[in-house]
Amino acid sequence: MLKRKLQISGDALAQEIAGETVILDLASSTYFGIDETGTRIWQLLKQGMDLQEIHELMLAEFEVSPEALETDIMAFISQLQTAGLVGEAQDQ
Amino acid sequence: MAMNVSQSLQLLQQVDILLCGLLKGEKVPWENITFAQQAVLLDRINFHGVQTMIWTDVQHSNWPVETKAQLHEASLAIAGRELGHMHALGKVLRGLDEAKVAHILFKGTALAYTIYSNPVHRIRSDTDILVSEQDRTTATTILEASGFTACSSFMELLYYQQTWRLETGNGGQHAIDLHWRFNNSELLAGLFGIEELLARADTAVICGMQVKIPCKSDAVLIACLHKAVHDFSPYWVDGRMHLDGARLIWLYDLHLLISHFRVQDWNDLAEQAAAKGLGHICAAVLEEVREKFGTVMFLEGLEMLSGDSKGRATRYLDSSQAGRMWMDLCACQGWREKFLYAKKVFFPSEAYMRHKYANDKQWLPILYLRRTLGGIFRHAPADSHQT
Predict the structure, then answer these.
(1) Residues B52, A17: C-beta atoms closer than 8 Å
(2) Cα B15 to chain center, whole Å?
C-alpha cells in the first residue's frame, strides 16, 4: 500500500497557518482545511517523497505505532484523492 | 454599566497595549484580561488587522475555547482568501510582465511577502500596484483580461488610482488598486516617481515571479507617510470608516522593516527623508513604533530624521484641510492643471454628485451649492481606500 508515489495536483494551492493548511482547488473552486498531521503529510508529498518515505519519517517524528500511522496516512491520502488534490506520480 | 468617552478610549488603549505585548511575543493569560477588555478584544483585533498573528500566538494558550474558535475560523478564512487573491494577482502580474509594463508593488502585499514570516500574517484587503501614467491603459486592459472590473469609483476625486475588483463566485472578491501616481494628493504624488522607486527597488518572489518592490528605506518612508496621511484621511475596516492612523498592523510593518535595518539603511532613510521633507513625520511615526513594540533603533538615525527642517510634505501633513487643498493646488504644474484641479474639487461630475447625494433628488446646481457650503473641506482624501 505504501509503495506508491503521489503528486499534488497543479490546481491545488496551499497556504499554511499556525500548523494547519488551507488548500484551494482551482478546478472546483473549493477550499479544504487540513490539520497538523495532514499538513505534515502534505509538506512531505510536496517535497516529492513517496508514501513509504513519508511513513518512515513520520514514524520517527510522532509517537505512534507503524500500523496506526499507515492507517492514518492511507485514510488521508484517500481523502485527498477523492477531492482530486493528488494523483499517481507520472514518473512511477 | 455605561462608560464615558474617556473611559472607552482608555479601555481601547489598554487593549492595544495588551495586543502589542502579544505581538512582541509576551504571554497574556486570559485571567490577566479584565471583563471590560475581553468584551472589546475581538473587535479590536479585527480593527488592527492582526487576527492571524494573534491566533498563532494564543492557539495553545488558556484563552477560552469560543474566543480561540473565532480567531481560528477567521485565520483559516484569511488563509483561504490569500490563496485566491494571489492566484488572481498572479494573472495580472504575468500580464504586466508579458506586456513589458514596468510596475512596482507597494504597501501590504509587498511587505507580506518580504518581512513577514508568513504572508497570511499581513492581512490586507487589496494589492497596490504602481505603473507609469503612459502604461495605465495597457494595465487596465490586462486587469480586464484577468477578469477584474473597474469600480465605479465611489470617490471620483481620487485622481491617480482606480480600484479593480474580481468577484470570486462565493460572495467574496479580490481587489487591486492600480496607481499611476504614487498618491492622490498633488503634492504627495510628486514625492515618489515610479522611475525613482524602480531605480532603487528590491526584488521579491511574489506569485512565483520576480517582482519589484520598494527598497527598505523607501518602504519605511511610504509606510510612515501612509500612517500619517490616515491621521486625517478616512479608511474603512469591515465597512466601518475610521479617521485616525491608529492601526497596529501599520506600525508593526515598520517594526519589522526597522528590525531588518542596517546602519547604511538608516543613512539612506535619512537622506531620502531629508530630500522629500519627510524627516519629522518619519521620526514621529518611528518613535511611536518604538514606544509600542520596543523596536531597537539606531538612535543617531532617529536624530538625523528629527533634526531635519520641516519640509513641504511635513508642513502639508501638519496643515488643515483647507491648507492641504491650497498646497495641492499650488503643486499643480501650470495654470491648466490648476484649473482642472479646482474644477474637480469644486464641480465634480454629475455622476459623482448623484452618487454622493443619492438620497437627495435636488436640482444639480443646488447640490453643488450644498457641497460648496457644507462639504468642501471634506474633499479628496490623499490616500483613501478600504482596508
Answers:
(1) yes
(2) 22
How many Cα atoms occupy the beta-carbon half-sphere of A49 within 13 Å?
16
> B82 — contact with chain A (CB < 8 Å)?
yes
Confidence at B381, pLDDT banded by 50, 70, 90: very low
**CA-wise closest residue to B122 among B210, B57, B49, B213:** B49
- For residue B89, give the nearest of B146, B140, B153, B149 by alpha carbon: B146
What distance in Å separates the CA atoms of residue B287 and residue B278, rounded to the nearest whole number?
A: 14
| Torsions phi, psi for B162 (to 5 deg) | -140, 135
Could you tell me if A49 and A2 are in contact, meaning their C-beta atoms sit under 8 angstroms apart?
Answer: no
Nearest residue of B to residue A33 by CA position? B76
Instruction: Give the 3-state secondary structure of residue A19.
Output: coil
pLDDT per residue as tens digits for the range B191-246: 999 999 999 999 999 999 999 999 999 999 999 999 999 888 888 888 888 877 78
Which amino acid, B102?
A
Q: Quote the pLDDT of residue B157.
A: 56
3-state secondary structure of B384: coil
DSSP state of B148: -
Q: Do A17 and B118 touch (CB under 8 A)?
A: yes
Q: Is B171 on the interface with A (CB under 8 A)?
A: no
Please count the residues of chain B. 387
Asked if A29 contacts B172 with a C-beta cutoff of 8 angstroms, the reply is no
The shortest C-alpha distance from A82 to chain B (Å) reads 20
For B266, left (φ over 0), alpha (ψ -120 to 50), or beta? alpha
Short-list B214, B188, B215, B230, CA closest to B129 = B214
| Grid-cell match 484577468, residue found | B146
**Which of A9, A22, A28 to probe by mutation at the B interface, max B CB count within 10 Å?**
A22
Out of A16, A18, A24, name the one closest to residue B80 (CB).
A24
Q: How confident is the model at residue B256 (pLDDT cuts 50, 70, 90)?
A: very high
Cα torsion angle, B53, B55, B60, B63, sign: positive
Candidates B167, B125, B152; CA nearest to B356 is B152
Q: CA of A92: how far to CAs of A5, A49, A80, B198, in Å?
A: 7, 12, 19, 46
Residues contacting A19, CB < 8 A, separation 6+: A36, A39, B59
Long-range pairs, B133-142, Cβ under 8 A, ≥24: B133/B180, B133/B181, B135/B101, B135/B102, B135/B103, B135/B180, B136/B178, B136/B180, B138/B99, B138/B101, B139/B96, B139/B101, B139/B103, B139/B178, B139/B180, B140/B164, B140/B178, B142/B92, B142/B95, B142/B96, B142/B99, B142/B101
